[in-house]
Amino acid sequence: MKTKIHIIISAILMMPLFLQGCNDDKFLEEKSYILTTDVAFTTPAQIEMGLNYLHNRVQWLMLYQTSTHNFMINGVGLDTFAALQSWFITSDWTAMTPMEIGYNRHWYQFLSQIIQYANIVKEAAEETDANAWPTPTKKAETIGEALFFRAWAHRSLVGMFGDWPIITEATRSAKVDFVRQPRVDVWKQCAADLELASQTLPKETNQPGRIVKAAADHLLAEVCISVADHSSADKAVYLDKSIKAANRVINKEDGDYELMKDRFGKRATEKGKNPYWDLFRAGNFNYQEGNNEAIWVVQYDYTAGVSGKTGTRPENYVERQFLSQYYHVNHLIPETSTQLYGDGAIYFYDKDGKAITSGSGNDSTGQTWLILRPTNYFLYDVWKNKGTDYRGSEVMIQRNLQQAGGRLWKDVFAEVKASSNAQYMTANDTCQGVFPRIWKFSTDKHINGAPNLYDGDWYMMRLSETYLLRAEAYMKSGDKASAMADINTVRDRATAPLLTDQNDVTMDYILDERARELFGEEARLITLTRLSTKESPLLVERVRKYGWTFPNLPTGPRQPNIANHQWIYPIPVSLIEANSGAVFEQNEGY
Q1: Handedness of CA 395, 509, 216, 261 (dihedral sign)
Q2: Residue 112's pLDDT band (cuts 50, 70, 90)
Q3: pLDDT tens-digit profile of 311-357?
Q4: 547: burial class by Cβ within 10 Å (0-12, 13-18, 19+)?
Q5: How far apart are CA 309 and CA 63, in angstroms?
Q6: How far apart are the C-alpha atoms of 527 and 369, rounded to whole Å?
Q7: Which of 411, 413, 412, 381 is nearest to 397 (CA)?
Q8: Pair type for strands 397-398 and 81-83
Q9: How confident is the model over 255-283, as pLDDT tens digits?
């Protein structure tokens, strides 16, 4: 059994904190915040506890929540997948306001906690005698890990909200006078932190999930592109920095990283699958498990769940959020009174309105909450002319879904359309209730056969993204030939047709390739906001072009109603009100 990072939450960590985090049961409540902390770490063991808490915060952000807000940074409601709740703030963009019920606040609180604790850990480590540490390099490695988290959190806040305060010291007393800094300056601070982190972090570790040198260089490659895009005076220098940082990862200076081109891991002997499928099987996620393209992976342990989360089942909710309800129904009732399989797309209803229970989830199907749906852009558009690209194959995106009784849904839909019951089939059936199964976020081997127990870790960084970041930097440096070579390296692993004309290398093409390779994993929100400006809001343009159209609302279909200013998200009103010592500017348009 692999050694996981087990996060220990002790009394020393439970204090008033810079922008305290969400409560399990009261996440949507507004709170007022004291910007202070009285924690002190004096020994390497205590400092390690604080470092573990940083990992815990990321676990909570990426794996904890049962609804949609853990996918905010991954781009829920943008061009690749949507929340099926029509009221959600990226489903109905009129609800994306400074006073929305707590989704943006959830993220800025947790990211602010990460910055605060990263600064505490860094300062404590710097003040601790080097001889107190278990190894000669451990002190520097700890500082490097803290710098990485500080940079990652700042980059994420800028990606959500634009200009943001640069916070490089722990807040030891109440502070209510934060001032936003231009996002280019924040990215430059991130780059400086990551350059230092890269120099001190280890190349490898025996603890899955810990931050290593390659993670710092991967993120450095991204933030340097961000600086180059928005500071013409720095463009050449920062694109060069980006390429060199990616080179260190790709050329194995930072460790033995390579794309997994052969079958590997726990289920490698199963026929009909591929290496991309193997990447997403339990027990295959980590570098320590033989996965040489895993750079940073958030850990999930079903025996403990997400540490710090008490009073609830230790479930990983990712599968249940992305799965459709295709498996429920195994028969057709002629006298259906509402939809093909009911209001909410779960059951058939007879003529008297009585729900008739049909198929239920099992080990092979999993169970769903019907929360997230891939857009047609991801399910269909990016796979046109896919050839033998196995990322878009039936093995990875199962389109030929069967009812519980074994019939193909497409045959059932065709039969209903041709019958007198056609009036009872709605878009909730054909678009929202039944849609392709995404196998990168699903399994047919659940823990103890229980369909609700999914044991997948969560990729934060894979080597394939490093290649695509370097391709972007090459393209923006004018070297499209090298950019095409990097894209083709990623496509070659997937047995996809290779690019032959470097003029096909555009930002749109790279975004399409990122969707094919990194669907659901990448921080799509960050990607699209760093490519956007007020004058050219790429995020808005792509949502309008590719975002989910709600087809069956009482008022009729609704196209994405995003406004031009919503290429970045609103500053929560609670932060603005708490920052009483200085003006914390709201984003334009909100």
Answers
A1: positive
A2: very high
A3: 444 578 888 889 887 766 544 444 443 344 433 333 333 344 444 44
A4: buried
A5: 11
A6: 28
A7: 381
A8: unpaired
A9: 999 999 999 999 999 999 999 999 999 99
The structure's pTM equals 0.90
> What would the pLDDT profile of 49-68 be if each residue is shown by its tens digit?
999 999 999 998 998 766 78
- For residue 428, the 8-state DSSP code is I
CA quadruple 192, 194, 197, 203: dihedral sign: negative
Phi, psi at 348, each rounded to 5°: -75, 155
Burial readout 154-186 (b: 16 or more C-beta within 10 A, e: otherwise): bbbbbbbbbbbbbbbebbeeebeebebbebbeb
What six digits make up the tokens of 282?
A: 């339990």
Dist CA 218 CA 373 (whole Å):
29
Whole-Å CA distances, 402 to 377, 378, 410: 23, 21, 8
Instruction: Return the closest-CA partner of residue 330 out of 360, 350, 352.
Output: 360
- Rounded CA-CA distance 104/477 in Å is 35
Question: Which amino acid is residue 35, in one-letter code?
Answer: L
Quote the Cα angle for 414-440-531, to 5°: 100
DSSP string for residues in 28-93: TS-------------SHHHHHHHHHHHHHHHHIIIII-SSSGGGTTTTBTSSSEEES-TTSTTTSG
Closest CA relative to residue 403, chosen from 342, 324, 334, 343 = 324
Within 8 A by CB and 6+ apart from 276, the residues are 390, 391, 396, 440, 493, 494
Spatial separation of the C-alpha atoms in residues 467 and 491, rounded to whole Å:
11
392: exposed, middle or buried (Cβ count in 10 Å: 0-12, 13-18, 19+): buried
* Closest CA relative to residue 562, chosen from 101, 96, 233: 96
- Could you give the dihedral angle defined by the CA atoms of residues 365, 369, 374 and 375, in that order, rounded to the nearest 10 degrees? 140
Contact indicator for 328, 294 with CB cutoff of 8 Å: no
